[in-house]
Every structure is written in C-alpha cells, then in structure tokens.
C-alpha cells in the first residue's frame, strides 16, 4: 500500500498536481515507516529508509513551492468532494484563506433562501458562514451578499431572515449589504486579500440531515456532502471580465 501510494504521488508530482501529490507523499511515507518497523532484515530496512528520506525531501520541496505560490498569488487548489463524504465543514474550506487582513467579503449565490420542498433552509448555511467570519482570526467589517429572490410567499420570509442576520451581524460591528439579481447564476466567494473560492454547488453542498436530532444536524463536519468541486484562485491571476 505504501509503495502504491508513493507511486501515485510521483505521478501527480510529474503532472504538476502538487497539492494532491503532497498528500500522497505524506500518506505513503507514513505507510512505509510502518513497514520499516515491521521489517527485521537490516538491508531492506536501509533501502526503505533511503527511499523514505528521498520522498521526505521531495515532499518538503513541494510544500515550500506551494507556500511560495500562495504568497505570490499564483496558487490554484482544487478539492473534489465525493458523494457522501464528511469532514468538509466551512472551516475546512475557508479557514486558511481568512487571514487577519481580511476585512471585506463578497458572496454570490443565487439560492440563499428557503427551499421548502427539501425541508431545509439555505439561509442557515449563509448564517453559519457568517458565524465563521465573525469568529476570526479575520477582522471582517463588511459582507456583500448577491442572491436572487425566493419565489411566491417565500420572498417575505427570505427578506425577514436576511434582515435578522443583518441586524445580528451589526451587533458584532459587521455590515451586511444585500442585493438581489434575477439573472445571477455563478457561485463564488471572494475575500479582499485576493482569494476567490468557487464551489459548484455554492454554500449548499451538504445533504439534508436524517432528522433534527441526528448526528451532523449541528456540526457540518459530520454531515454527508453532495458531490461537488471546489476551486481556489487568487484574483491577481484571474482575468477581469
């Protein structure tokens, strides 16, 4: 298993898929270290240790390369969330980009509203995202939301809920600006430190919980996800339309 994982790491490395390669190198190294512990043949142990040392050196080089790309704003990270995967709460996706200099956030998502048919409220997803911003370490002062109106009678409930979120945020010194567009389709989140996150399903990539008292209802890290793709870019290296 260790050899196969490292082989995959090398393939990803050659393909310049450095983030995925780094993960495979780290997993492969851990597996090979377990093999070394279980091996009694000293010659084999020495060969394994030499290979592990080479892989560790390469993993460290990749890690430095990724950090440099982040600093230069050239970094592109893609996360593929599999169907029913867990462990992808908002902290997992956004925390590393919410640096202390982040003071302004833009959220574009057409479905920040009630969805009665699915027995869930996407407004709560937006609220949880706002809670993440309030907790820091960023110093968010302004959040811009662009969404679309709910249909029929749901519109008044949507507006009431958003106004309540706006008022609650103001208690924490955060201003929420709300705009509506009937033609919005894109889903993206931008921070004023230059990072932009595009999620195929927007903030609504979680599956409906089995019940109000089921595990995952409160903690999004424990809630199964729909399959989706997350792309992270820096606006310094994206073309303005």
UniProtKB/TrEMBL annotation:
Keyword Coiled coil set for record: yes
Gene3D superfamilies: MITD, C-terminal phospholipase D-like domain (3.30.870.30), Phosphotransferase system, lactose/cellobiose-type IIA subunit (1.20.58.80)
Source species, domain of life: Eukaryota
InterPro entries in the cross-refs: MIT_dom, MIT_dom_sf, MIT_domain_contain_protein1, MITD1_C, MITD1_C_sf, MITD1_N
SUPFAM superfamilies: MIT domain (SSF116846)
Keywords of the record: Coiled coil
Coiled-coil stretches: 45-72
Residue ranges occupied by any MIT domain in the UniProt entry: 1-71
Keyword Coiled coil: yes
Protein name in UniProt: MITD1 protein
Source species of the chain: Polioptila caerulea
Lineage: Eukaryota, Metazoa, Chordata, Craniata, Vertebrata
Gene name in the database record: Mitd1
């Amino acid at each position: 298993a260790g050899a196969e994982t490292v082989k995959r790491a090398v393939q990803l490395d050659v393909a310049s898929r450095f983030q995925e390669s780094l993960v495979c190198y780290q997993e492969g190294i851990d597996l090979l270290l377990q093999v070394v512990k279980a091996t009694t043949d000293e010659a084999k142990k020495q060969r394994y240790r030499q290979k592990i040392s080479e892989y560790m050196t390469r993993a460290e080089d990749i890690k430095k390369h990724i950090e440099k790309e982040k600093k230069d704003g050239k970094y592109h990270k893609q996360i593929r969330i599999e169907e029913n995967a867990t462990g992808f709460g908002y902290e997992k996706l956004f925390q590393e980009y919410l640096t202390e200099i982040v003071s302004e956030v833009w959220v574009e998502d057409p479905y920040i509203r009630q969805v009665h048919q699915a027995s869930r409220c996407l407004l709560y997803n937006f609220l949880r995202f706002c809670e993440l911003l309030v907790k820091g370490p960023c110093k968010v002062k302004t959040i811009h939301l662009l969404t679309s109106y709910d249909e029929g009678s749901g519109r008044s409930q949507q507006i009431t809920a958003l106004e309540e979120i706006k008022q609650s945020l103001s208690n924490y010194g955060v201003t929420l600006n709300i705009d509506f567009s009937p033609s919005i389709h894109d889903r993206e989140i931008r921070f004023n430190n230059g990072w932009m996150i595009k999620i195929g399903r927007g903030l609504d990539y979680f599956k409906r919980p089995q019940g109000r008292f089921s595990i995952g209802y409160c903690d999004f890290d424990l809630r199964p996800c729909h399959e989706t793709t997350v792309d992270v870019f820096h606006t310094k290296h994206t073309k303005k339309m």
